[in-house]
Amino acid sequence: MNHNAPLPPLSPRPLRHLSEVHRRVMTTAQLKSHGISPAEMNDQCRPGGPWQQFLPGVFLLHPGPPTSEERLHAVLMYAARERSPGVPSQPNAGEGHAPAYPDAVITGLAALTLHGFSATPPLTALDQIDVLVPRMRRLRSTGCARILRTSALPTPQQVTGLPVAPVPRALADAVAELTDASAVRRLLTEAVRGSHCEPASVVRELNQAKLLSRPHVVDAVDSLLAEGRAIAEDRLYEMVRDYALPDPVWNVDLRLPGGPHLGGLDAYWPEQAVAVELDTRAPRQGQRQDDDALWSEYARKREHLERLGITVVYITPKKLRDAMEQQAAVVRTALMAAADRDPAAYVVVLPRQ
């Protein structure tokens, strides 16, 4: 056989309908659909040949090392659920149309890098790419593809045309493999400082992954929550300034004259008897009762203050980040409504301890 002879025309579907990366990485089924027999595939992958089998059932149609993009698509091709016979493997295939990868989602460090994290290694430095598949899939890790099984696949976000786990889930999967406390802290800090997500969503995923029993993760979470509260407080200051709300008194404790402590508040408008409190609760493993108790305390405080004629507005960090204008409108409405309410009870305002 003349190994230098060109391949026969690929039929019935020519390759030009595929985007560039999908002319370089293809599965056995895709090659068969173009009229390439298994014997021809093997021949092209001979030592020194023009192709290489990169992962089981996935071929790289050039001899050199794969690019980062090729590795990502190859891993997804390997992990994706096979379609039924007769169903095209590249629906709507054409320039600008991303391929579908059923039941396969990039996660872990590779996903965080795709989301734009700077604390993660570049894709070229990752020995393995984590990919989530349903728990019942019979698939094993091989080559650069590390298979992570899950009972519930997260709804992927499309990043550069690839199905990528949302940041909180990708963080949890990355942290599960890390033992370096400083690396964990850097990732969690960047998630919040970079406005990728809120601390509560990260803690929820870490909790579900049962990672909050690891001391280095707990330490990082404590720093994360402190960081998250500081950022939320800065956004609260920004909201008051940018939306021209009256200046409140900040970070105060309220007490009845000669009576009990009523609770701390992030912002308080004494003349209108309106208060704002940031809800920065985050669920912890084994602390559901503590979380319920904290919420009950919030509710008791709110009820007590409102009996005294004080309106309490609770704002979550997520709402401050995603809907600041709406939250400013809620506070402004409460301030304007004060004129129509009965005067509030007299309370003593002190700096928060």
Brief write-up:
With 353 residues, the chain is of the alpha+beta class. Helices cover 39% and strands 17% of the residues. This is DUF559 domain-containing protein.
Structural overview:
By secondary structure, the protein is of the alpha+beta class. The protein has a domain at about 245-350: Endonuclease, Chain A (3-Layer(aba) Sandwich). It is about 40% helix and about 15% strand. The chain has twelve helices and 13 strands. A five-stranded mixed β-sheet has the order 12-11-10-9-13, with helices on both faces. It has a three-stranded antiparallel β-sheet with strand order 1-3-2. A hairpin with a 4-residue loop joins strand 10 and strand 11 (about 275-280). Helix 5 runs antiparallel to helix 6. The longest helix has 28 residues, at about 215-240. Residues about 1-20 and about 85-100 have low confidence and may be disordered.
Rg result = 28 Å
Global mean pLDDT: 85
Helicity level, as a percent range? Answer: 25-40%
- The fraction of residues in strands falls at 15-25%
Quickly give the CATH architecture of the domain at 244-351.
3-Layer(aba) Sandwich
CATH topology-level fold name of the domain at 244-351: Endonuclease, Chain A
Secondary structure: number of strands: 13
What shape does the CA trace take?
Answer: elongated
Count of helical regions: 12
**SSE succession:** HEHHEEHEHEEEEHHHHEEEHEHHE
Kindly, what is the distance between the CA atoms of the first and last residues, rounded to a whole number of angstroms? 85 Å
